Every structure is written in C-alpha cells, then in structure tokens.
Structures
1.
Amino acid sequence: MGKATASLEHLFRVFTKPEGKDSKLAQIEEHLSDNLSDFLSQHVVTKAKSLEEIEQNFQDYKVPESPEFVTKHAEVLLEKVVSHSVNTYAPTFIGHMTSALPYFHLPLAKLLVGLNQNLVKIETSKAFTPLERQVIGMLHELVYSQSEDFYKSHLHSAKQSLGAFCSGGTVANITALWVARNKALAPNGKFRGVAQQGLAAGLKHYGYESMGILSSKRGHYSLSKAVDVLGLGREQMLTIDCLTQRLSPEKALAAGREFEQRGNKLLALVGIAGTTETGHVDPLDELADVAKELNCHFHVDAAWGGATLFSQRYKDKLKGIQKADSVTLDAHKQMYVPMGAGMVVFKNPEDSNAVRHHAQYILRAGSKDLGATTLEGSRNGMAMMVYASFNIFGRQGYELLIDQSIEKAHAFAQLIEEHEDFELITAPTLSLLTYRVKPSFVDAHCSKQSELLDKLNVAVQKQQREAGKSFVSRTRLAVEKYGLNPLTVFRVVLANPLTTEQDLINILQEQLQIAKLTKSWKELEDQALAQLKRSVG
Amino acid sequence: MGKATASLEHLFRVFTKPEGKDSKLAQIEEHLSDNLSDFLSQHVVTKAKSLEEIEQNFQDYKVPESPEFVTKHAEVLLEKVVSHSVNTYAPTFIGHMTSALPYFHLPLAKLLVGLNQNLVKIETSKAFTPLERQVIGMLHELVYSQSEDFYKSHLHSAKQSLGAFCSGGTVANITALWVARNKALAPNGKFRGVAQQGLAAGLKHYGYESMGILSSKRGHYSLSKAVDVLGLGREQMLTIDCLTQRLSPEKALAAGREFEQRGNKLLALVGIAGTTETGHVDPLDELADVAKELNCHFHVDAAWGGATLFSQRYKDKLKGIQKADSVTLDAHKQMYVPMGAGMVVFKNPEDSNAVRHHAQYILRAGSKDLGATTLEGSRNGMAMMVYASFNIFGRQGYELLIDQSIEKAHAFAQLIEEHEDFELITAPTLSLLTYRVKPSFVDAHCSKQSELLDKLNVAVQKQQREAGKSFVSRTRLAVEKYGLNPLTVFRVVLANPLTTEQDLINILQEQLQIAKLTKSWKELEDQALAQLKRSVG
C-alpha cells in the first residue's frame, strides 16, 4: 500500500504535475497557510515521546526499494516527523533563539525552491548575486555607517566584498577568523603567506610559537570549532572567567600580554554582543582599544545581539561595535528569517581577499561570483528572505520588535524578583535572562542546599519540557553572588513577539507546581525545618 | 505608496495572519503551485539584462526606514528578483548541475519553514535528529553496505556518527579532510593531538615537514579551500595532470612517494566520482590501494556521481568507492533535492569523534545533539527533503532517473559526433560531456586556427546564454588529442529529466546559427580558403 510503480511516466509526473487540490499534501499546505499556529497545535503532539521512542520510527537503514505515492508519504511525514517536532512558533517556547516567523516566509520558501538558484556563481543565480551583496551591504551599513561614496564603490565591486553570507553564525565566525589568520600571516618577503605555505611555515616565518584567540568564557562554542579547524588548536582558545558575564578589558589585556610574552601571537580578540547563555554584551568600545593595544584582529560575535542596532533606544548597548574588524550577525535570530542566514561583515572590504579562491570552470578571476570569497561553495538563495524581511519590516519595524522584546524581558525579570520562590540570576541586557526556582525557605549559600537546588531545577526544567506546554532551557552558570561554583539555572529568550506577559506568568506557575511535587523540594523543606529546629532548640 | 505604518499591531498581523487569498503573494504562490514551468516562463525574462543593469536595482545600501506592505513587496520581488533570476527548471538549461525539482518540494519547503527547526540540538529539533541520522545512515549503506548489526548499533548511537549533514559539498569535503587531519595527528604519548595543540605542534611531534593532499587537476576547488582553511597551505594541494581526465594510480603513487621523501606526510588521497568539469570517475579501486600503500586517508568526492550507486547498470563505474574512508555526496545534485543538502559519510563511525565538540548549555556530552560533530552549528531541517525524496523515489525511481540521464548523454554525444561542425571533446562517463563548435573546414591542430576556435566557442556560449533560450556552460580543458594546451569547450550536464532529444538538437542548431554569424567563423573560413589556394596553387 502506498507503493507506486517505478516508471518513467510516474517520475515525470512528479516533476511536471502538482498534487491534486484534494491530496493530503495540498491539505497540509492549505492548513499551514491558513493558520500555522492551529496546524502546529493540531499536529505536534504536546505530550512528548522520549527520543528512544521516536527513534523507533527511523530504524530503516536502506533507501526503500520502491517508490511511494506522494500522498501516502505526506501522511508519514505528519505522523513520524511533524508530530514529534518542536513547536518553535509557540509563544511559550522561550528556551532557545528560534521563534515564530512572519507568514510571508511560507510562500517565499516555496518561491525559493521553485527558483532553486545556486549562489556560488552568477551563471546560476544572476539577480541573486547583487541581491545578496546588497543585503550584506545593508548589514555593513548598520554596523559601520560608512559614507555613500564608500558603498557606491564597494557594494558591487568585483575586487572586494563587504562580507560573506553563510549558513549560520558558526561558519560566519570561522570565516572571520580564517580571514584574520590569513592576514596575520600574510605574504612577507620570501614568505608567500599562510594560505599558500601553511600555518607551520607562517608561524616560523614570523617567529611565533603559536597563535591564539581570546574571549570570555561565555564565547560561543563555534570559536573553539574555529581554532580547531584553522589549525591553531583548542588550547590556544584563551577564555577568561567572567562572573559578571562580561569580559573585563583589563583582564583581556593582561591575558593577551602574558600570552605574547611566552612567544605567542594573539590572533584575535573576540567580543560578544549578546552571549548565548545570558545575552550580555561585552564592553566592545574598551575591547576595541585592547585589540589596538595588542595589535590584533577585533572580531565581534553579534549573531544574537546585532539586530539591537535597529533600535534607537538600545543600540548604545553595542557601543564600539563599529570599531570591530569583523562582525557576525544571524538574520535567522532576531531578524525573523528562517534558519540558515548567518553573515559576517568586514570593516575593510579588502579583507575578504585574504581567502579569495578561483577556479577555471567557475569563479573566474575578475568575476563577481560569490563563491570566490565564501567558505561554502554551492548555496541557496536565503538572501532573498533577508531582503524581503528588511523591506517588509523596515528599520522601524525591527526597532519595535527589538524594543518590545527587551521590555518584555525586563517585565519578566520583575515578575521573578517579586516572587518569593524564584531567584533572578542574570538580569536582561537584551532579551535574555536566567533565573531559578529557589523556595523562600532555602539558604542557597549552604553547599548542601545548593546541590539540592541544582537537582530541583534540573527536574523542573525536564518535567516542564516533557509536559509539552512550555519550554525554557537550562544551563550552568557561575555568577558573582555565588562565586566560582556554577549553578543550574533556567535560561529564557524572549524573542517571540507573540509571547504575552500572561504566558510568562503561566510558565512560572507551572514551574512552581512541578517543583512542589519533586523529591528535592521535600528534602529542602526537611532541611530547612531541621535547621529551624536547631536554631530554636 | 506601499509603505506601511510601523505599529506593533501591523507587525503582529504579519506574524499571525496570512495574506488574503487575492493578495499578490497568494497569486504568486498559486501560480507556482499550479504550473511552475509556466510561472517561470512568464516571469523570468528571456532576454537577459547585463549584470551591470541588474545591479541598478540593488543600489540601496541602507535598510529602508519604513515598513512596506507584503503585497507591495511581492511585486518588487517579481520585478527585480524573479524576472532576472535563472530558469533552472528549463529543460534547455543544461550548463550546470542545478536542475528541475519534483513538485512535492514546493509544499515541503513551506512545511520546513513553518516548523523552522534548528538541528544543532535535540531540544530544537526532536524527530529531525533521528530523521537526519537515518538519512545519513541510508547514504552510508548505499556506499558501504554494512551489516544489519552494524547499522543497528551505530545509526542512533550517541557515541558515534555515520557522517555529517552539511550545507553543501564544500563543507562536506572540508569536514572529511578535517577529520583526516585530526586523525593523522592524533594524541600520541605526551602530544595531546592537533585538535588541542594545533598543527605546528602536531607536525613537529610526528616529525613531518608539512602535510599535503593529492588529487587530479580535476579536483573541485573546495579541496584548495580545505587545505587553506585547515592550515596546510594551498601549495600542499598536490594536483596531477590528467589528459585522460582520470587520475593515474601510478602517477598518484609516485607523487605521494616523492612528497614523502622530502620529509612530508601525505594526509589524504582524493578520488573523484564525477568531476565537475567532465563527469569522469577516477579509478577508485586502484586509488584505494595506492592510499593503503601510502598509509593515508582515502576520500572520495562523489558530490556529483554518488547517486549513480542507485543504478544496478551503472554503479560499477564507482567500483572501489566502498574502500574510501570518507565519501562526499550532494543530495541537491542528482538526488533532486533543493539546494543545501551536502553530506559526508565515514566508513568508520569512530572518525566523527576526531572533531567532536561539547558546550555546557548545548551539545552536552553523551547527548545525541548533531552540532557536536558537524562543522556548522545551527542548521535547518533540509534532511526532511532528502528523507521525502528517498521515500517517494525509492531506489528504483532514482535508478530510472540516473539511467535515462546517462543514456541521454550518450545519445547527445552521438549527435555531436555525427555532426561535421561539432567535435566531441570528452565522451560521457556519467551524464556530463564536453564538446565544441569546430567547422568542418578547420584544422584544429594549427595553433593559429586553434586560437580562433577558442574565440569562436567563447562567443557562441556567451551569445547563446544572452539570447536566453538555452544555456550550456564553458570551461577550458586539456585533452589527450590536443596535448597540454587547454581548449575552450562547451560543458553540458544532462541532469534534468525533462530535457528531450529534440531540445538537444535545437541547442546544436542554435549554436551553429550563432557561430556562423561570428567574426571568428569568417576568419576561420578565410584561413581555410587561403590554405586551400596555397595547396592548389
């Protein structure tokens, strides 16, 4: 059943004739288009199966021998895939950076696949090439605000590039540090450059023991992927403790100097504009000075926080970002574009040439083919989604979205602070905050109770996630108030414009209900009671 | 006009209410769904503007200040973007590897964006994680055909991975060589491994001058990106001339030995299964032996040719591929999935651990989070498109598609050979071939006429592309018959199942018409006439 015959006629139909209007796939599509929220509530099962149960649906390890009718497969997709996916559109899914998207991306996604361009080369992308360059130029302008003349000469130049479009922030960060590495070990005298001769020859020529990158402990894991892939080694990823969640410029300078005194070269200092865990912004302006002092590349990872630049009220939180040599921004985060739109912009458009590649049949020298200066080769036309979003939202639209997110985070922080059984751990800089359940009777500085608190918070987060109504994430974090021992905390990202204050109140209530039924809560109560008895006794 | 007011109400509508059924965007969508081919013929202008003209539409370098109505923007998209994109669906677009896609991908693209999962982590992807692992397992089985027990223990193992899903073949190749590098410079005694200590320390510990990669001159440009980004240096990308378009195992062995005699270590030998330029397949079986002899990693870049394994009739062309340590395959090429679906599979599931990364808030140790062993971080659910295609086509469906492509290529080769004014340059191994216009009166071995021939072929390719009815690509290629001097040739990829033999006949006719009107044709005629006179005189 559901098996189709493998005939060329059948196959050609799949390429030339859409499914009928009454087919299952057409029904799915209509439901999606009419009411995405309703489609998801209806098809994504709220009571989650365990991963092991879900895996049972994905045990076949051979490509099926016979074809299957599209309609039959549409049912399989609903049953096996959609039902056990994550409802990222839900206003109560506030645990990660993936949020509801505007409706217009649904038809645009279809247009994108209908056009199926390949941006590696103009011959397979035409208008998409200048479109992508324009999008990157707009982000460049958002960060660096250069003159009209600057953009006129660089936006569509075959000789330079203002940045690179990437599948995500990780590739963007790797690209930035790749550029930095190739610039730091540039051709010099008889040395033909690291891109040509390799890293060992480069270090030797310049007389460096090794090269490192410096960021706070809150730096994204992509930085450690970058130092691995670029050949620097993860031990050269220098991270600095930050109980305040922000990198101290003094500590950064001291660490950089100490590293260089040992015969090494600091390749890049990385400032973070919106850490993944708490949303904090490093003191970019001061860090820019440190980078200057250390004569190294200054990269800012603004994958999350970059969109704050749209807001007149809050953009100062990123003060100094325009001093960065390179900046990573993810449009699939606070710019409300579907997953797959990371970008890096370079202050100096020459920088992209540090990684320029050519090939005869493709990416000919002198062409504007995008593949010549990107890490990736073949890529789809995601830039169109960014282009549409920039135009449809406008700067003012983004400003409203950013402002309301930050203000909602402040309102939520206040709710937490006013509640006797919760503790705010990190207040929001942008729209992220962390907190935990801490029953009013608990002494969190007591190490025994602190351990139990961690257990309690792990249990609450897990059970809430499994109940399926709402989702906050959790992490472990060291904070000033409690010293170097990390605590287990809830992490909340208030990016979804559809999340209401009532949703947040409900999430707290649900957490408290769950907490009160845990063994840890009971144990904490017993301990508190015993302590009370002792102190009274 | 077209400008919307920036109000939260307006913005919320964009997130919660689809465009009306009569809106421009809904019209576009309906047209796309009803008849993609008609939509494209109607909206993609056939007479191409120059890139410089198209760039005029993309001059703004600031994100627009005010929002724009979706309907207004839909018109902009049609006018500025769609009209000047490339019609990759057209049966006469046979110049690159991007082809028509089956219809079901249109609604699936919408579903993908509606779900907007992030595959970096199970918490944001749930069923998509085992789905992606299954898809990779199926490709692993296609290449390596291991036992049921093997797949039972590895398909969903938290400790290993059968491969990595990537945005494309370039990232897949880089990932494979990253793994190879980290394995070759693995922890050893006091040395903590290249991933930890870096490349220079690794080379020093193992006593290597440098490390290189070897492939034929037809290797994809992504290999040279890989040696750059991985720190080996592009001079360590050893390429071997191949007038036969295939890497000679003897030459490979000799070059590898010579490289190692100079104190270097050959990191990897790369065999190509379907070169980008001519579709040739290296002698993989023999190259596997060479790699064994040289004790190096054997990687096969089967981005294009991998799908041939679906065909009982032609899979032997890839004989020996199962001996590779790693294999790259692109589902967005001959598996008819939209752009953005590259994969690498590893023979040994342990290999992925050479690049494993963890982070506290994400990718916890022991979890099955996909981001722990991929170069990329956040990624979308493209694996669903591969999953759907595997099920809907089945192995038999793909076999029919592959067989007819290869047979069409042979039929086209015969058409060319039978035509007195064309010359077949490389016959098809898979569904690629190269040829050129060569008027019957030309002596192509005469260097003066050979230069004119190149000019003629450049002109024909350009003019045909600009005329907009059909598109073949061009490249420069050295072939046995004409020695080391590269010729300009047309390159044809017969991947689109909708391309008919009549289309191919028309393409040749159009090329001949264009050719006869060029200056070069006239000059070639004059030369031939002069020569004739001399010989008669």
Note: Chain B has three domains: 1-85, 117-381, 402-536.
2.
Amino acid sequence: MTDYAAILETIYADVQPLLVQGKVASYIPQLSEVDAAQFGMAVYCLDGRTYSVGAAGQKFSLQSVTKLFSLALAFSLEGDAIWSRVGREPSGSAFNSLVQLEYEQGKPRNPFINAGALVMTDILSSRSTASDTAILQFAREICDRQDIEFDLAVAQSEHGTAHRNYAIAHLMKDFGNLHNSVETVIDSYCRQCSITMTCTELAKAGSFLANHGTIPWSERQVLDASSSKRLNALMLTCGTYDAAGEFAYRVGLPAKSGVGGGILALVPGEMAIAVWSPGLDETGNSLAGTYALERFTSLTVRSIF
Amino acid sequence: MTDYAAILETIYADVQPLLVQGKVASYIPQLSEVDAAQFGMAVYCLDGRTYSVGAAGQKFSLQSVTKLFSLALAFSLEGDAIWSRVGREPSGSAFNSLVQLEYEQGKPRNPFINAGALVMTDILSSRSTASDTAILQFAREICDRQDIEFDLAVAQSEHGTAHRNYAIAHLMKDFGNLHNSVETVIDSYCRQCSITMTCTELAKAGSFLANHGTIPWSERQVLDASSSKRLNALMLTCGTYDAAGEFAYRVGLPAKSGVGGGILALVPGEMAIAVWSPGLDETGNSLAGTYALERFTSLTVRSIF
Amino acid sequence: MTDYAAILETIYADVQPLLVQGKVASYIPQLSEVDAAQFGMAVYCLDGRTYSVGAAGQKFSLQSVTKLFSLALAFSLEGDAIWSRVGREPSGSAFNSLVQLEYEQGKPRNPFINAGALVMTDILSSRSTASDTAILQFAREICDRQDIEFDLAVAQSEHGTAHRNYAIAHLMKDFGNLHNSVETVIDSYCRQCSITMTCTELAKAGSFLANHGTIPWSERQVLDASSSKRLNALMLTCGTYDAAGEFAYRVGLPAKSGVGGGILALVPGEMAIAVWSPGLDETGNSLAGTYALERFTSLTVRSIF
Amino acid sequence: MTDYAAILETIYADVQPLLVQGKVASYIPQLSEVDAAQFGMAVYCLDGRTYSVGAAGQKFSLQSVTKLFSLALAFSLEGDAIWSRVGREPSGSAFNSLVQLEYEQGKPRNPFINAGALVMTDILSSRSTASDTAILQFAREICDRQDIEFDLAVAQSEHGTAHRNYAIAHLMKDFGNLHNSVETVIDSYCRQCSITMTCTELAKAGSFLANHGTIPWSERQVLDASSSKRLNALMLTCGTYDAAGEFAYRVGLPAKSGVGGGILALVPGEMAIAVWSPGLDETGNSLAGTYALERFTSLTVRSIF
C-alpha cells in the first residue's frame, strides 16, 4: 500500500530549493505582501484518510480555484444550458485577454478564464440576489466546514484594481452575454475569489469531483457521474490558464490553479490533492505547487494517462 | 466481463442515422470522392483480444492521425530536445492557421497542428534522407504489418493543393525553425499523411501508447512509460484540432483524429480503439466517429476521468 | 469663378437616389429613429461667402465629428505632449475594437478611434472639472454661435448603451492610460458626442482648420499653422474609421465623419465643407455624404492630390 | 521665387548628424553591406528644372519604391478591376505580416504591402510572360532613360531569403488570389525590387504622378487625372509602411519609400522629389530621408494640407 505520508515528506524536501524561485502575484495589492517561501500539501482519499505536510493548515486566498466552485454550482443548477453562454475549448491566450473574446462575439472560450467565470457568476446572480453567498455556502458544504469565509480586505483590494475584469464584463454586456449589471457581477466575483481555505480544507472540497460528483461523507450528489467526469475533462484541458497543455504533459491530472498559489488536483475515483505555495511561475501557476504535483504522480504512479 | 462485441454492435446501430450528416473533406481532391456513409470500428486490447464492427477492414487515408507517428518517432529518437522547436499548448485556432505562428515567432503551439507536424518531419528529415520511409517503417512496426503503404495518388493530390502548408513551412523557414528545404519537408509530409490502414490495423498501431510505450507483442520499448504518458496527455489536450476541449468533455479519452475520418483513441493500460467514418463535423473530426467513441466510453465506463 | 451654388444644386439632385440606400446608426436608440432620407450640405469659404443646399439648416447629432474638437482643444492646450498617450497611425480595424488596443498596451492608434477620443477627454478632464463644458465652449467659439448645445436625450441614450466604450476605458485604465475615473470620462464623452449643429454651423466650425489654425473672423490662432497642417494630415489618414484609405482615394480631402451622418471636410487654404445625410454605408460613414463630397471634388477640381 | 538650390544645401547640412543614426536593412544580404552614411536628394519640377544635392547621382536599390511602378502599370492596363483583388486601406501592421491577410481571406489591404505588390505582379504576369521586363520598360519610360537595369546580384540575394514572401504568396494562392505560379510571381517580384536608380532619375520617374498622370516631356498619359489623384491618395495613406500616419503628420506629402533608403515624394501639380539615405528608422523608412522631406515642406511651405 502506498505510503502517502512518506511521499509527502519526500516532496516537501524536494520543493525547498524552488520556494525562492517563484514570484507572488503583484496585481492584487493584498496578495503581493504574502511571503513566497511557503509550502503546504494535503491529500484527501475517498475512504476518508487524509495526509498533509508543511503549511497545510495555513489559510490562503483561493482566487481562481473558486472558478471551479461557481462552475460546479451553476452546472448543477442549470445543466447543459450553461454551454450556450460559454465554450469548452482552451483559449490559447492569457486568462484575462480580450482579443479572443472580441473575435468570438462575447462568448468566452471556457469557464476557467476570467470572462467565463464572470458568466458563471452572472448565471448565479440571475438565480439569487446574493450569488456570492450562494457560492460561499456551496464552498462550505463541499469542504464540510461552516467557518469558511471571504477575506473582505482581499476582495476590496482586488475590486480596486479590477479594471481589466470590468473591461471584460462590459465587452460581454455589449455582446448581450451578461444579464445582470456589471457592478453586481464584479462585486460577487471579487468576493468569491477572496474565499480562503487551507490545503486540508481544499483537498476535501475537491473530493466530490474525484468521487463522480457525490460528496463522500454526506452522499449528496452535486453532479451526476457523467457531468462530474466532464468537469474533470474541462479542468485538464483548461484549468491552468495558458499552461494547461504543459501541466497535463507534466502532471497528467485534472487541476485548477489560482494566483494565490493554490492548486487543486484530482485522481478520479481515488483522491483529491491540494497544494499551496504562493510563488508563481511565468504562466501564473504555483511554481513549487506544480512541481510537487509532478513529483506526486511520479512517486505514486497516479497519472490518468 | 465487458462484452465488447455486443457494445460495438450497439454502437454500429446507433451511428447509422449520423452517417448522412457529416461531410467528407473537400480540400484534398482524392478524399472528396469517398462515400461518407461508411463506418468501421475496432478495439485492440492489450491482452491481444480484438473486436471489430462494420467496415473495420476497409483501408482509409490516415491523414493527421499520422502526426502521432511522426511525433512518437521523433520523440523516441530525439527526446526532450524536440520541445525547443514546438510547444505543448492547445492552439485555440484552426489547425492550419498562420496567425498564432506569426505571433509566436515561428514556433508552433503543438505537434498536432500542421505547423508542428512539419517541424517533426523536418527533425526526421535531418536524421535521414528519407523521412517518409522512416515513418512508414515505423507505422509498419507498430501495427505489425509489412504491407502498410503510402497512397501515392492521395499524396500527389494533397501536394497539388498544399499552398497553405507551403505558406506555413516558408513562414517557419523565415523564423529559422525549418532546417531542411521547404520542398523536402512538404514532400515527406504529404507522403506520410497518405498512409492507409484499416481500423483493425490502426487500433493495433496505437496499442504501444496504451501500453506505456512498449509494443505489446514484440515488447520493444518505443518510449519509456513517462514519455508515453506525456504523449497521451498531448493527445487529450491537442489531438482533435480546435475541438480538443469539446472532445475531452464528450469522450474523455486521449485521441488523434484525421480529415480522412479516422480517430485513434486510447484507454491507458487497457486498449486502443480505432474508428473510421469519413463524414466530418464542422471542426474537421469524424462526426459519427466522435459519437461512437462517446457511446463507447458511456457503455464501457472507460473514461480516464 | 466657380459657381458653388450651382454645383451644390447638381450634387443635391445627384444624391437623391442614394438617400434610401444607407442605414441609420442603430446602436444608439435615439439616433435610430432619425429619417434616413435627408440631405444637407454647406460650404464656408475663408472669405466669408457661404453656400448651402437641402437640409443644411437642420440640426443633427455630431457624434464622432466632435472627436475633432476634443483633439484640437487638447492639442492647443497641451501641444505635442498628447502624443505620448495616443498614436498617429490608422488602426486597420473597427473604430471600437479592443484587439489592437490590447496588443499595443492601452495606447490607442490615433485620436479618432473611440479609445483615442476617450484619452483626449481624459486629458481635458485633468485640466478642468467640466471637460464637456470646455468642449462645448470651444465648439461655440469656432462656429461663432453661443446657442450650440448638447442633446441630453441623445447623451443619455448613448450612455445607456456605452458598454463597449466602458470596456475600452477600463482596459486603458488597466494599462495606466486613463488618469480620471472611467465614469467621469465616459460621462463627458457621451455629452460631447451629443452636440448638435447644422451643416452651415459645422462648415463654419471647421474653417479654422482650413485657415491654418486661425479662426477667420476673430483672427484668434487656435493652432499654429504647422499644427493645423498636421491635424489635417491626421484627418486624411484616420478621420473616417476603417475606410480612411477608401475615402482618401475617392474624395481626396481631409475629413472627419460621425455616425449621426455628418462629415466635415477641408480644402486647405480655401474652405470647409459640411455634409449630412443620416443613412450610413457599411463602414459607418454617411453614404450619400461621401458621394456628395466625391462629386464636389470632381466638379470643383479641389482634391489636395 | 523659391531658391530650391539653397534649400537643398540647407537640408544637406541639417541631415549630417542623422546619417550615423539609421541602420541599413539587414534582411537582404546585399543591402546590408551598403554604407549608411550617405545622402542624396533631387527635385524635378514639372517645368523641367532640376535641383540636386549630395549623392544624388549615386545608384541605389529602389526596392519597395518599385511597388509604385507595378501598381501604376497594372492600374493603367486593367483599370478599376485591380481593386477586386487588393484593398485600399492602411494595414495597421508590418509590411510583411500574414495576420491580416489570413483574417481578410487572402485579399491584401493595399498594393504597397508585400502581399498587395505580389498581386500586382501576378496581374502583370497574367498579361505578359515577362512581367519583370514590362515593369523595367515602364521604369525606363517614366524616367526617360533606357539604361535603367535590374541589379541581378541583389535580386538573387533577395530571392534566397524570400521565405516570408513565399509564405505570403502561398497563402494568397490558397485563397485563390494568385493566378500564376508562386515561383513565377516571386521571381518577377525580386527582380523588379532590384531596379536601381539615382535620386535624379527617381525624381524624374515620379513626375508623371505629380503631373496628373501624364509624362511631362512626352505628354503620354499613363493615367487619367482622376486615377493619378487616387494613386497619390493611396501613397499618402499607405505608402510608408506602418508609419504612413506619422509620415503624413510630419511631411504631409504623398510618398513611397523602400528599404534601400529611397523615398519618392510628390507635390501635386508642381514637382517630384527623391531622397536617398540608406540608414533606416525602426519603421523601415529612411531616417535622414524622412527628416529631409519634413524640412523641405517646412522650408518651401509645400505641404498638401
């Protein structure tokens, strides 16, 4: 039987030299103050066993990892109707570019670029006056902790520099692909991005996607098995910005990353893995976190390929 | 135990209404004359069992499926050095577009768009005066048949309308990313694209990639397990033109398609599947073939996700 | 001596069949209600003689023609400093596209596309809390009428559908090329666009640019001769959206058009010409208006070329 | 009366400090060997007077200046039919970019970018088996010298590095906008580009365009007045690569430049001016040459604006 505890310790030792090489996200003032030289990792097996190493109990800003939550929630509520408003293809350009969005008439390439996540938020805002609260409740449910919260200082910090997201939202509004006000959608988006979790919590939060759409402990089916499988496919092809191909090549697991330095990865049918290290590589993904996952799949022989 | 024979029969019945909906590739004169309403499918299990249905014994033009052969051969010979000349990211645009190639200074996004495949051919041409023969020999080895051949009429037909590939090759030459003459590379490329196989042969040809890089019957290791896994990841993220995300979403298997209507898909560790139906959807992938694979993963519960 | 009155009558007769062919701008609700089948034209010679025909006394919405006013005012106040924030090249794409703006890091190609005009407004807003009033005062001075006004219903109508301009402004804000708030700049921009004039007034308003930068009747030098000449050059290369080349080819005069159907054209050293017909061609320029100017240069042999 | 001789002497003195600042074109081997610190200028007045200064009698490679000759010749032979195959708008991107050409389905933006010039050559090749000879004969006629020649060493040098032009030609061939073989068109194109003239000869060669389309000494009408006016407009909006707006702003005359360092400019109805200095600015136009023309229009007050 695989000794995950030992493997995590090995990885922890291996990543140490990398912790000084990444750069923390600079465009959100609050995030730019985080110390890059931190690393945590946690594994949540579907049988309930959990393993962790390093700063796995330290809260961090989920940022784009929450795009997975808003997508899963919108998909569970609206089903395939969401695909009339967002595509399922890799973008081939930066996560916040407007070029492709203009060429493709305001329909984002996928739900994991900013434009696509704003559309998910818009869909949720059309169902509820407080889409941010709905997403927070969902986040609490899937990681089984009622004390998960927004970090309002981060939300405010992001809101103050959200000019590009405003540009994206207005462009989609111009094309008719945003039904609520730009302000409403951006507000909710900045708040959901600010949700904080620890690695241990995040691994647990991802477990329903490793478990064919059903939360392991409550047995509530969030998504049917087919939909869950499809979300995994989307994570693999589009979950790590414009480095999804490289990530799939190196790691070989469905994953979603955030500029806070977190990455959630899945071994379908077996486990969810969360890793956090705030130093980013040039593609905006956690440098040490990506390497840690690459080592994990090598040491456990757990790629999907 | 899964009854693959019955499953293939079910799929064969299911695809019948779709056979009239696709359109055969029109830009290569020879291919445009093929009857769209044909369908064949074959499964090659790593234990040697094989299953097939329909026109699985009918030869067809592999076209872009051969990009997998030239990549595997170049990768096996040159190792990671090939990645200095071609990327590993989805392209986000058509398989024969020049836009991204110009922005990215002549380095193709991945080895499965035409530009990337031309670079693989160029690499092989630098090793051998007859790169087309080298690829043909490789194709013969991996499907264990010495009678695999080019279809020279198709090669010539394609060569005569290869203006866009010439444009791509010259643009890369301008950027210094083509070391042999444009004529040499295009010649070899058109010939390799013209290789014909049956579904039964193609499924067998893909089996080494399902088998961690080793040819099952000869036990020759073409690629090590890690490299084979990585090729699978590339197939999933980039193997079906600008519909890779959609294909992963629907089918959930690594695959490589061609405009001849063939698709090779892999269930890592278990089997290779080949399907052929010449009617294409608007993304250039076999319409009935994609649906057949989607049905296959549903009926066998064999997605990687 | 050229009989301008007779020439205008000839043109008036010639354009009648065209009046039903153009389409009024549809994206601003208030403008979409205007009757397309109207035509007016006025000539203001630098010696004070004026000629007019048709609906030359009818007020219309100047829209993008006012980009010329904000540019001239900003240029007169700030001099060459404005060119650090806006370019002088034709854009090669639509007047409200974001693609080039993103590639060129938030620096608009020229002051006559929306992005560039927003930068001019931003510059004026940095000098004055009411840049819209400053532009209105300037408009009043150059056409020598104190009763020139905003059309607030049009301004409000435009503001309500200004999503794309908001997107452009936020994108420039993101790149640091907007110093005031997006709201401030868009407000002022929508108001200045709503200024109404008659053809007679507009021709007079343009006369300082035909007169080497000096208002003929007051002899106030708005721009020195060299700067005036340079603005004329900008009008010729960039003044009629993505049809500037076609316009120069057909008409051969510096001109600025607006989606309200107005066009101001200049014969340097001789006269300013205003034409109005609300039916637009597919490039967003007045269909009958462009034709009228083409006829005018033919009949008077007054091209600059 | 303007003392052109004195003005040219003044300019000659003024440009001296600039001669070391430009860089000679490096992509054509033969051109890269030219000494940058050279300068010549010549004026041909329509009454036959000529003025010159510096190295005005030195032959240089006309390169893209010859695009004017192929356009004028094709236009004189085919009339407006040429505009079905090439546009009249500035390109907004580099002279040899493929991006816009692909978006616009193989129709070049204007006849002065490489793609457009290749179409002109194609048109002439469809009329004559030796389009290069036809252009050479035309060049000889318009400058009244039978000893004008190709520089075959330059032509060959250019041909050997013409990969990007091959890419452009093949892309147009793919779109059906090239009727002769790529080889035929590129051959002719490289030869016409290699034509050499002195400033004195080039100024004379341009005089028919300053003279409303009629060669002054022979009174042969190459183009009617209207067509000649239109070519002037095209030169102004598109004649100096992606710096046409800047050039119009600074110089204010229709002009065509080449990477050999030559520029031909026109004062309609008065004169043609040729300037040569091989050091280029970053937009590919002669650095000292552009400045010399700017000084010329200032000193003679001869802008068209």
Note: Chain B has two domains: 4-61+196-300, 64-193.
